[in-house]
Design a protein that fits this description.
By secondary structure, the chain is an all-alpha fold. The protein has a single domain, classed as Up-down Bundle (Four Helix Bundle (Hemerythrin (Met), subunit A)), CATH 1.20.120. Helix content is 80%, strand content 0%. The two termini are 26 Å apart.
Length: 148
Amino acid sequence: MTTISQFLTADHRRCDHFFAGAEASAKPDWALIQENFAQFYSALTHHFSMEEKVLFPAFEQFSGNTMGPTRMMRMEHEQMLELCTRMAVAMGTQDETEYSGVAETLLILLQQHNIKEEQVLYPMSDQMLSGQMTELIGDMQAVPDTLP
């Protein structure tokens, strides 16, 4: 049986793959960067939706706590989406310096965020929600994905 940790950690790797393609190279190909960024953004927002619509509410209902780790994760999601907006603006103006600087900041935030989820929140979810695991993973899989 797949655990919540395994399912969502694999999706982190999927997002990481798309992010790697969205990072600017020494001589940026803006059309390719824009295509890769669109894939990354879609994967990232889908991942956030799975967590915020399915996992976090189940975690909060079970724990009775809406001010704990899920609140922090939501705040970090907002920060990352703001950085994505800045990247999109920089991409639109082809500002390589701004784009790569914001991408570097986003990468650091993503790495720190993923560690907290993978080492704390997901294992807690596996333990607390073990009786609902199959249903929760099914519900997360049912969240619409805009990627092919």
